[in-house]
Write a structure and sequence with these properties.
eight-stranded mixed beta sheet; seven-stranded mixed beta sheet; 27 helices; flat
Length: 921
């Protein structure tokens, strides 16, 4: 498609989307070069579908029709097509109309909309995706309503409109159903959009993890290399489907005992998943063969892409474009592979040698193959299995967000472990993580605090502690190392969540008990006095003591410490059985074991150890120690066990606190449309698009923009001379404040650049003279006059767009002390009423707001409302990239915003606020 001749072509409307069945399609504007594609598409549509579209038999498009449907001005007349490869599979168009239903131009804000989807692709969600995107286009062109005429028998299309979640009106006129849709997004339409996104992306991952047939492309005849290793691992791990080897030089029917072909096209059966292990320069040929054969997904093990520099990154972008053009999804490139331990699948399409990990309840995602190897080995050593494993390499297409979508509804996964180097789309990640964490733990170890090669997402500007706090707000358990990732994951996968922070400690080592006690205090837990069973304790003693601790109303979790017996009179299997027996008799509280050099105990407590012959009951043994469903994690250090328990405690508290997540309030006086119009005007002459830089608004423009969201900034008047200061004071009314606004003195009362409570002209003139004598000329100081406001606590409210964390709302007290100590709290945008209340209470200096040392409490409800209004502004308008309100004086009644700085920029072409779309490259 050539668009160079059409400068009005809106390239930012192009998007890749995941459809209901997990396949992909590309949505783009229809151009004049699409005449042939349109005719071919129409020829493949059934007569019935044509009748529903045109209300009459319409076997073919006339030349006039083709011209009309391919020539658009992209303002009043727009057409979009959903494509796979070069073929149209669906189209949608709108024509702006006036009140009389005839073609019109702006300011008319209604358009007639019509769809047509190829019969072979109906039921895949094509029309729903097209409606989302044409709706976004219409809103961009100031169209607020869609009108559609649908035949009563066209139930599928009526359902598309009905299920969209928009406010709509329906009437029956002249034998057809007349529908009117209000395009203003609603909570319901957003929920519908995100539910469709979740189902589609989860299904796309499911197709990758549950193939019925797999082909490995690039299997060497010598049995060496990556491709041969992947083939062996698939074969030897017991893959339940059909397996094929592809090598263009194959001379036999078998390679490593697997049916071999010289080309994928020679396989006379469907192939669901292809593992590509050929040099990077040959990957496009392999991808094309997969696309032509109807392969659903790819795992590209080949290296030489984004991790290798700029040329490799260009090659990676082209790979993604090619893969998506065939409607496929991609794991990689430079991937380590995928594993699905479901018995009916048995997939090990990775470089992990057989046997594959055992079946377990942990899902594992990594970006790094090396870290993936480390985590798999650690879990294997601890006897823990997996539900699924994805090591996505450069994650050019399938990312951690997609895997979270899959795990959210995967009944086989109880705990999600993720090693991430970047968050990709941070708004989407935190949204998905919050939703997933509400039903199962999400544990994240984050490496690469600077942008690694191969990843196009910039690093964060926020301190690491801030990123951790923001992730915890979303329910994510943030850990610092891969060792902690395994430690925490093991406990969460095998133990119930604790009801509180009270920890009982018992064991046969007083010293190890004391270490555990200290570690609990360091983690903010509430440990009881350690119970020393002495080194003479037997397995039965451990069982009795543990049972008592679990049954006690004074504990929420138990840590058991164990050191070896001097005479080794107690088999470790017996101790493991005793502990299992106690846990089985008193379920509901987590237990962690701290041991010293007792590897056999670790094995016996693991899932595999539960099936040890020593623990299997005999016919005489009515109870015994056989508890294969009881798993107890064991740790070689007290600090590691306690850290895992503490993370479980904090996560449990988050789950309980977020049973009510709060609401994003609606304020009737917010003028979203007015703010949008003002931003458009401000940015109209600033650059040409996203990435053109940041514009800092004047004080007047900043105050005007904030006013659209009910945030009033107290005006200031310039005072270039003493006489001008007096005139300003008369205009504002005494008493006033005189302040310097020079950058090096702004908000620095400690340097003497502020004079308050000036009640008379004499006071003002004297202060003006003192300032200019002490600090510099008026031209250097840029003095201003402002009316005095009621005394209170000076605070600072900010919001910024961080490249790795997304939109962030921040709060702290004003002043050097707070800045020096970093006493600032943060929440993700959009903030709820619960978030705002928690934000102002989470700084260390919060007592100053609530009547510390007998002072009057300030108006925190007003402060919470200010935070929520600012959050709404930033969330509604991605053009706003930074806001600072400083100082905000919070009095006993009300507050005053004395200064505001606002930075704006052209928004990115696509954000998480728009229609669902895959990341573009």
């Amino acid at each position: 498609m050539t668009i160079a001749s059409d400068p009005s072509y809106p390239a930012h409307w192009e998007a890749d989307v995941v459809l209901r069945d997990g396949g992909t399609a590309r949505i783009r504007p229809i151009t004049t070069e699409d005449a042939g594609r349109l005719v071919s598409f129409y020829e493949q549509v059934s007569d019935e579908s044509k009748y529903y579209r045109f209300f009459a038999p319409y076997p073919r498009l006339s030349a006039r029709d083709v011209h009309r449907f391919t020539h658009h001005d992209y303002v009043d007349r727009v057409g979009l097509a959903a494509t796979v490869g070069e073929e149209f599979i669906g189209t949608v168009r709108y024509d702006r109309i006036g009140p009389d239903g005839r073609p019109a131009s702006a300011p008319a804000d209604e358009a007639e909309v019509a769809f047509l989807v190829q019969d072979a692709h109906q039921g895949r969600g094509v029309a729903s995706a097209l409606l989302e995107h044409i709706g976004a286009v219409a809103r961009e062109r100031d169209i607020r309503r869609f009108a559609a005429e649908v035949l009563p028998a066209n139930n599928k299309m009526i359902k598309v409109f009905k299920d969209a979640g928009y406010e709509q009106k329906r009437s029956f006129e002249d034998g057809s159903v007349h529908l009117t849709l209000d395009l203003e997004p609603t909570a319901e339409s957003l929920a519908v959009q995100r539910a469709r996104e979740q189902r589609a992306e989860a299904r796309s991952v499911q197709r990758l993890l549950t193939p019925r047939s797999v082909a490995v492309i690039g299997v060497s005849r010598s049995g060496g290399g990556v491709g041969a290793a992947a083939l062996r691992n698939l074969r030897d791990s017991g893959f339940r489907g059909h397996l094929y080897a592809v090598n263009e030089a194959a001379t036999t029917d078998l390679l490593d005992g697997v049916r071999a072909y010289r080309a994928l096209g020679a396989v006379d059966a469907p192939v669901d998943l292809a593992v590509i292990a050929v040099p990077a320069e040959r990957v496009p040929e392999a991808v094309a063969a997969c696309g032509e054969h109807g392969v659903q997904g790819l795992v590209v093990l080949s290296a030489g892409y984004g991790e290798s520099g700029a040329a490799g990154l260009d090659r990676q972008r082209e790979l993604v474009r090619q893969v998506r053009s065939y409607g496929m999804r991609l794991i990689g490139p430079n991937a380590y592979g995928v594993i699905n331990t479901a018995p009916e699948v048995g997939l090990n399409a990775s470089l992990t040698p057989a046997p594959a990990p055992a079946r377990g309840r942990i899902g594992l995602f990594t970006q790094s193959g090396a870290i993936g190897i480390s985590l798999l080995s650690a879990l294997l050593r601890r006897g823990e299995g997996l539900s699924s494993f994805v090591s996505a390499g450069n994650r050019a297409d399938v990312s951690g967000n997609d895997i979270l979508q899959y795990w959210y509804e995967d009944e086989a996964t109880d705990v999600a472990l993720m090693y991430l180097e970047t968050l990709g789309n941070p708004r989407k990640f935190t949204r998905l993580a919050r939703r997933t964490a509400a039903v199962k733990p999400v544990v994240v170890a984050r490496g690469g605090r600077h942008t690694p090669a191969g990843h196009v997402v910039p690093g964060t500007r926020l301190p690491d502690a801030t990123v951790s706090a923001l992730l915890r707000q979303a329910g994510v358990i943030r850990v610092g190392t891969v060792t902690e990732l395994v430690d925490v994951g093991l406990l969460l996968a095998s133990q119930p969540l604790p009801a509180g922070p009270r920890v009982a400690i018992l064991g046969n080592s007083e010293s190890l008990g004391v270490l555990s006690y200290d570690a609990c205090l360091a983690q903010g837990l509430r440990p009881g006095a350690p119970q020393d069973l002495t080194t003479a304790a037997t397995a039965a003693d451990f069982r009795t003591a543990l049972g008592a601790a679990l049954g006690s109303a004074e504990s929420d979790a138990v840590i058991v410490t164990v050191i070896p017996w001097v005479n080794e009179q107690e088999p470790q299997d017996d101790l493991a059985g005793a502990l299992r027996d106690a846990v089985a008799a008193h379920p509901g509280k987590p237990v962690a074991v701290v041991h010293v050099e007792l590897a056999e105990l670790v094995d016996a407590l693991s899932p595999a150890g539960a099936l040890s012959p020593r623990l299997r009951p005999t016919e005489e043994d009515e109870g015994g120690y056989a508890r294969p469903d009881v798993r107890i994690p064991a740790y070689p250090a007290a600090e590691r066990a306690v850290r895992a328990v503490a993370e479980a405690v904090r996560y449990g508290q988050w789950r309980r606190a977020n049973a009510d997540t709060g609401q994003v309030p609606e304020y009737e006086d917010i003028d979203e449309a007015g703010a949008a119009a003002r931003l458009a005007a401000l940015l109209a002459d600033f650059g040409e698009g996203a990435g053109e830089g940041v514009l800092t608004l004047t004080e007047t423009d900043a105050a005007a923009l904030l006013a659209h969201y009910g945030i009033r900034v107290l005006p200031t008047l310039p005072a270039p001379t003493a006489d001008a200061a007096v005139r300003a004071a008369r205009s504002l009314g005494y008493p006033v404040a005189l302040k310097t606004t020079a950058p090096h003195l702004r908000h620095r009362a400690d340097l003497g650049g502020v004079r308050l409570d000036l009640a008379t002209e004499a006071d003002l003139r004297r202060s003006y003279e003192e300032l200019t004598d002490l600090l510099g000329t008026p031209g250097e100081l840029l003095p201003v006059v402002q009316a005095m406001v009621p005394r209170g606590v000076d605070t600072v409210v900010r919001s910024v767009i961080d490249p790795a964390a997304g939109a962030v709302l921040s709060f702290g007290l004003a002043g050097v002390a707070s800045e020096l100590l970093g006493d600032t709290a943060h929440r993700l945008v959009p903030a709820t009423d619960r978030d705002a209340a928690g934000l102002i209470r989470s700084i260390r200096t919060a007592p100053l707001l609530f009547g510390w040392r007998g002072s009057d409490p300030v108006d925190t409800p007003a402060l919470e409302e200010l935070l929520l209004r600012l959050s709404r502004l930033v969330d509604d308008h991605p053009e706003v990239v930074g806001v600072t309100l400083e100082p905000v004086v919070v009095a006993t009644e009300g507050l005053s915003v004395l200064g505001a700085s606002v930075r704006v920029a052209h928004p990115p072409a696509r954000t998480d606020l728009g229609p669902r779309t895959l990341p573009s490259y």
